[in-house]
Design goal:
The complex is a heterodimer of chains A (220) and B (222). Chain A has 220 residues and is an alpha+beta fold. Chain A has seven helices and nine strands; from the N terminus they run H-H-H-H-H-H-H-E-E-E-E-E-E-E-E-E. Helix content of chain A is 34%, strand content 20%. Classes of the chains: A alpha+beta (220), B mainly alpha (222). At the A-B interface, helix 1, helix 2, helix 3, helix 4 and helix 5 of A face helix 2, helix 3, helix 4, helix 5 and helix 7 of B.
Chain lengths: 220, 222
Amino acid sequence: MQGPCRAQTTRPIRVTRVDHAMASMTDKPNGKSADEHPSTEDLAAYLNGALTVEGKADIEAHLGNCRDCRREVTSARELLRSKGSNRRYWIVPGLAAAVVAFILLTPSEERSGPELSRVRSATLEGSSSVEVVTPANRQAVSRLPIRFVWHRAADDALYHVTLTDAAGAKMWTGETSDTVLVLPSAISLRSGRDYLWYVDAVRPNGRSVGSGTQVFRITR
Amino acid sequence: MAGARTQVLLRLLEAKDPAAKESGWAEFVTDYSRLILHVAHSVSHDHDAAMDSYAYVLEHLRLDDCSRLRTFVADGRSEFSTWLLVVTQRLCFDHQRRRYGRLRIREGRQPSDEDESHVRARLVDLIGVNIDITGIVDDNGVDPERALRTEQMHVALESALGELSSRDRLLIKLRFEDGRSVAEIARDLELPSRFYAHRRVNEILRRLKASLSRNGISESEP
């Protein structure tokens, strides 16, 4: 069967059409559509393994068709696994109180990015950021392995380095009291790709400063 | 509700006078800041953005006399911390969308070329036949017969995927669309082991290939 009419209706095949096709083919146990995004309660119950067999099947039927929800579930699972670990997201009790006070006492229309920045910076002593050396922002990197280097922000700080891909997905984290970290060879970076990294300096008293995100590209 | 931590939530939600509410809120923030900040750092790609998200989450949890927190039902289906993690993550995503728009593509890159070719490459692995990907996506000057055959291949693939159970379909999507390792899939789906997950994936691929063969799809060229 061929002809101009058929040719005119032909369109490029995109894999994502599978998702749409499957959405219409999924069975619907318990009368609930597999197209419906899970509620917060159902998702939390799914993550805690507390759903019934049918409820779990509903969620997984939806996850098979919805990439966004799969990513949400994957991210939540990783957070649940890591939240019990000794992550160094220190926060000064005073900072928490300052943020809360700012929100409660300032009319919402007056709240803005710069205001909140002042709240943050008011509680950080010394330098307001960690100054990076290399890879600098927008730097092209040709030499491997990658060495992350920055200036010391405080003598007693512990530095937490994070590397992400261009979309912000975390690829690697490392900690040191030094001002240099070498990316392990097991972490493979591809030529022509952009990567993001940042370093947070955390002091024993809980105060922290960061470098802000730096972008670099691998060229080799 | 049970446990010291949910008692913190109870005290906040049951507080009547302003002083008790302020005290309850301060206690809640002290107890759950670490979790909220942990999520904010995970979602945001830099320190400042994470702090903005953290403040956004606190603001929205406090809104309307903590109306969002009041929707938690202690029916034993989930821990409050898990529920709060999900709420926080969704609020952080919402905050990001409001600030940066809905990022469907990687920054500075075209929306479809590399991402879709990557998924199509995985699809080749998925069905185990050497489909000419460039032929599938070539929408310039493809002759009608080739286009029809390609369409038939696609319909057959959709049909084969539709024959899978929802769990098997999820397994395949996690493996080939999301790039999860079999070890991660085994852990997330509570399968007995990664070896079991690996065998399961292979079995599904064999079934898909058999299904395509029944529909006359076994060659690379349409």
